[in-house]
Q: What sequence folds into this?
């Protein structure tokens, strides 16, 4: 092609072309990340996210931040380091939560009739905002991992507390005391019940009594730091523009 | 650049850079089709999908499986064959404007790929979880699987491979060889389909109704990560488009 030829007729057309492509790129990135992130999250932390009786003080608090900081770290490695766009983590989390809310409403409720106040997704937005803000202010993925990753783990429980607190009040039912969330699970039997809920609050961490949630949150926060580092480098790898030879394939 | 009489005439006669009709029609095709599928699940999942030994299960679900498998093979071979057969053998000599037009067509394919991934990996995959939490499975071919594994996954595979073939056969930016990330972004999600074999095999051994975080499902997780390779494809595209538009945007 000739270097003197132009792909557009005017500057105005060039601007219009650029804006149109921006939207097409963002839509594709949003939906592809939504799909990958959602399948990752539902199969590594999904059960804790599906049901209120799984949203306990121990494993929900531990697992959810660790497995959900992954895609935000990778997408930040693209959007910030290549394009200086400071919304990688929030973009991921909004995509995930959009996919989850559509599903919980149209399928969990709309197809199999679990009430939405039993199967709403966890809120991941506060931690994602902090991740993006720390990266934007520091421009350092190390600081984002250490400070942002720590905050991501620690903020998860407080970020969900206003939603889950009413379901953690104690009730007495047939002489037993448990939470309102447990009572929901008791009434909405799932195919694997009762074995299905065997992972909820098991173990001697209960010994810590009221401190279970903070202990779990700190442990989760430390692991989130490591996972952020790992996934930042995954993100860098996925950003490659390399070509390989077609010969021999 | 000033518009001349000739260039105005040329503008009037040439195809638009972005064919919005194709973009909207493609988007609506998936939306309307999957809305119909969701309606079908809602009605016939409960009325004919609970017992795989019942005659109505064969009528409403197994026949649907057979039909969709045949259609997918026919559509994939026709579409991929057409894109390959009509390839441009002088791709490096096209004009910049034609190249830009082809990038828009390529992005129409990629928008459809992202849209198809949403339906397959997000909508129908999590939906499968709630179905298994409600109905005890007595077959590999549950209504949710017939939709998720054997319909929505092949559809995104067909769409993704079509986008890859279009780029490889029509765009100068992809003539250096095979784009590593493009291959990962298409082959990775494709590998979820063979992983269904492992999944079904595993479910015949262990009763897991339905612990979604069971290690048996981690193959899906690993291949789901490949969706991130779309970032590499975006980077290649941005570099190519920057070369095409930079001096006009300056």
A:
């Amino acid at each position: 092609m000739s270097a003197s030829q132009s792909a557009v007729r005017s500057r105005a057309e060039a601007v219009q072309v650029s804006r149109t492509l921006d939207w097409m790129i963002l839509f594709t990135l949003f939906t592809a990340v939504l799909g990958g992130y959602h399948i990752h999250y539902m199969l590594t932390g999904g059960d804790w996210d599906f049901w209120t009786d799984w949203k306990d003080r121990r494993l929900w608090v531990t697992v959810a931040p660790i497995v959900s900081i992954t895609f935000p770290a990778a997408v930040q490695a693209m959007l910030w380091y290549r394009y200086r766009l400071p919304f990688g983590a929030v973009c991921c989390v909004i995509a995930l939560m959009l996919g989850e809310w559509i599903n919980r409403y149209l399928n969990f409720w709309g197809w199999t009739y679990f009430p939405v106040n039993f199967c709403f997704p966890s809120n991941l937005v506060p931690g994602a905002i902090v991740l993006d803000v720390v990266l934007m202010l520091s421009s350092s993925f190390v600081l984002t991992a250490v400070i942002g990753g720590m905050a991501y783990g620690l903020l998860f429980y407080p970020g969900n507390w206003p939603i889950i607190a009413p379901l953690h009040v104690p009730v007495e039912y047939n002489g037993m005391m448990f939470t309102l969330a447990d009572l929901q699970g008791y009434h909405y039997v799932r195919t694997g019940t009762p074995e299905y809920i065997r992972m909820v609050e098991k173990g001697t961490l209960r010994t810590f009594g009221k401190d279970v949630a903070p202990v779990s949150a700190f442990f989760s926060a430390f692991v989130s730091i490591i996972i952020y580092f790992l996934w930042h480098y995954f993100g860098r790898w996925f950003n490659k523009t390399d070509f390989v030879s077609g010969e021999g394939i | 650049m000033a518009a001349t009489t000739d260039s105005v005439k040329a503008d009037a006669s040439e195809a638009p850079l972005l064919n919005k009709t194709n973009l909207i029609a493609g988007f609506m095709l998936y939306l309307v089709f999957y809305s119909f599928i969701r309606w079908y699940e809602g009605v016939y999942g409960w009325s004919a999908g609970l017992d795989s030994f019942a005659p109505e299960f064969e009528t409403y679900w197994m026949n649907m499986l057979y039909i969709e498998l045949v259609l997918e093979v026919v559509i994939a071979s026709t579409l991929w064959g057409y894109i390959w057969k009509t390839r441009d053998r002088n791709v490096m000599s096209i004009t910049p404007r034609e190249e830009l037009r082809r990038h828009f067509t390529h992005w129409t394919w990629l928008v459809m790929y992202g849209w198809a991934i949403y339906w397959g990996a997000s909508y129908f995959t999590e939906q499968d979880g709630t179905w298994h939490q409600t109905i005890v499975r007595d077959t590999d071919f549950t209504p949710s699987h017939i939709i998720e594994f054997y319909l929505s996954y092949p559809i995104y595979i067909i769409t993704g491979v079509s986008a890859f073939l279009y780029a490889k056969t029509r765009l100068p930016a992809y003539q250096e060889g095979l784009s590593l990330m493009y291959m990962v972004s298409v082959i990775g999600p494709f590998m979820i389909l063979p992983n269904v074999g492992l999944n079904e095999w595993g479910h015949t051994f262990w009763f897991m109704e339905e612990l979604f975080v069971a290690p048996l499902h981690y193959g899906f997780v690993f291949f789901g990560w490949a969706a991130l390779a779309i970032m590499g494809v975006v980077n290649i595209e941005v570099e190519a488009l920057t070369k095409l538009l930079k001096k006009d945007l300056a």
